[in-house]
Amino acid sequence: MNSENVSICEKIVSSSYIRQGSQARRSHEQLIRVLLEQGKCPEEGWSESTIELFLSELAVMDSNNFLGNCGVGEREGRVASSLVARRHYRLIHGIGRSGDIAAVQPKAAGSSLLNKLTNSIVLDIIKVAGVRSVASCFVVPMATGMSLTLCFLTLRHKRPQARYIIWPRIDQKSCFKAMITAGFEPVVVENVLEGDELRTDLEAVKRKIEELGAENILCVHSTTSCFAPRVPDRLEELAEMCAKHHIPHIVNNAYGVQSSKCMHLIEQGARVGRIDAFVQSLDKNFMVPVGGAIIAGFDQSFIQEISRMYPGRASAAPSLDVLITLLTLGASGYRKLLRERKEMYGHLAQELRRLAEAHGEKLLSTPHNPISLAMSLDSLQARSDRAVTQLGSMLFTRQVSGARVVPLGNEQVVSGYTFKGFMSHSEAYPRPYLNAASAIGITRDDVTLCMKRLDKCLKSLRKEAGSEETSTAPPAGENDSAAE
Q1: Where does the record place the modification N6-(pyridoxal phosphate)lysine (predicted)?
Q2: CB of 221 within 8 A of CB of 260?
Q3: How far apart are CA 346 and CA 352, in angstroms?
Q4: Which run of H or E residues covers position 217?
Q5: Mapping DSSP to helix (H, G, I), strand (E, B) and coil, where does residue 252 land?
Q6: Bridging pattern class, strands 249-252 and 164-168
Q7: Bridge partner residues of 251 (DSSP)
Q8: Backbone phi and psi for residue 166, each to the nearest 5 degrees, phi listed first
Q9: Parallel, antiparallel, or unpaired for β 404-406 and 433-437?
Q10: Rounded distance, CA 142 to CA 258, Å?
Q11: Binding site for tRNA, residues?
């Protein structure tokens, strides 16, 4: 409310009360002013009333909310359902323009401001999480796979004769299909087994570069966050290799923002070598609905090239979701979530190790994986292949989500490529196992309940196996008579 309206209010209600109300409003406005000036995530989270006031102020700056607006174009921010309008805080125009997702829209000053602020705040949070030297980023309304595709398509214009992407194997379909969708030929490099861990085969990557020729390689496509027993790629060594051979390097950092180790690897890789862009999911790292990702990098001009490659305008929903979330948490709230996640990783490892030992199994040693853990299932495999896969079904029906059971010898065809041992990141990992992850937002109750249900499932399978052995055993004395 401007000063003129405040003066009028003082003629209607006691001026002392109005001044008090005005001061309360100014406290909200002060927070907004600091945000606009600094473009950083506030240290302390905002109240819902401050966030809603801010979003309302942005919305009234868009033409679809102008009083008396007369729209005669084909895209005027019209919404048939008031429920949909409220869901989006009446920010209907989306972000970007037809030629650049980061461009300002003349019809939508508020939505454009939201877009710029969100990208600035997310950049600040990436620095808070550990990549201090990151230069630029933007939120894109696509999940990680399609965002990787956008990066590859941008590189196509820089390296028109390149047709190969070197990819240390990780058994996750979207990052593989991202290369196929972009029109490139993935060169799959198998991992090497070191103890229980699957690690990057650097010598194999070197051989592929020599064999194919650096000029024919679009990029190296590496990975940080992954399911154990695979561990993050050797980013520093790969980055040095890429710099030496002048090959671009794109990092799939899907859920790595929540891990200080993954972020440190990216920071170090960029320091000693070459990382052109790294891509991370919004939902996995910031607990918002699926549908958005962050493309970030160390060369502002290249990140701008990627944003200009996006065709047309885009949904503002992912940007709005992450903006609301980070304003609610504040930088201190997000750091607290990161600390709690790391603490829960230790707790989950301890509980999973205890349970594994109780059932004659072991917690696989994967110290280089900071998020995911794996427990062997050798005793189940000894009974039958069916027992291993049955465990996965049992956990799912008992509402244990996210746990992956990986049997031996699984084969899968993805976009015409056959992967032996699919899900295990290796053609011949020596044992079946179960995955569990300590991801952001996990609670002690989640771990307790998971261990309880997993214990029951394993006991049930053991009991079932014992019953089968009894029912198939020959009658007493039969073996003796047969021997005679």
Answers
A1: 284
A2: no
A3: 10
A4: strand 217-223
A5: strand
A6: unpaired
A7: 222, 278
A8: -80, 125
A9: antiparallel
A10: 19
A11: 271, 398, 463
Instruction: Record the tokens describing residue 390, joined without a space.
Output: 């049955």
pLDDT at 470: 52
Cβ pair 103, 97 in contact under 8 A: yes
Amino acid residing at 138: F
Retrieve residue 385's tokens: 């292949």
**Which residue type occupies 360?**
G
Q: What share of the chain is helix, strand, coil (3-state, %, to 5)?
A: 50, 15, 35
Q: How high is the pLDDT of residue 482?
A: 32
CA 255 – CA 370 distance, rounded (Å): 11
Annotated binding-site ranges for substrate: 97-98, 105, 313
Give the residue ranges of the annotated binding site. Answer: 75, 97-98, 105, 271, 313, 398, 463
Structure-block tokens of residue 193 = 């087994």
Residue 458 tokens read as 């394993």
Q: Say whether pLDDT at 437 is over 70.
A: yes
Contact 422, 391 (CB under 8 A): no
The model's pLDDT over 369-423, given as tens digits with 9 standing for 90+, comes to: 999 999 999 999 988 878 999 999 999 999 999 999 999 989 999 999 999 999 9
Between the alpha carbon of residue 99 and those of residues 102, 246, 287, 302, 313, the distances in Å are: 9, 29, 30, 16, 8
What is the identity of the amino acid at 262?
A: C
Q: How far apart are CA 264 and CA 257, in angstroms?
A: 10
User: Cis before residue 229, ω within 30 degrees of 0?
Assistant: yes
Q: Which residues are annotated as a binding site for pyridoxal 5'-phosphate?
A: 75
> At residue 205, what is the residue type?
V
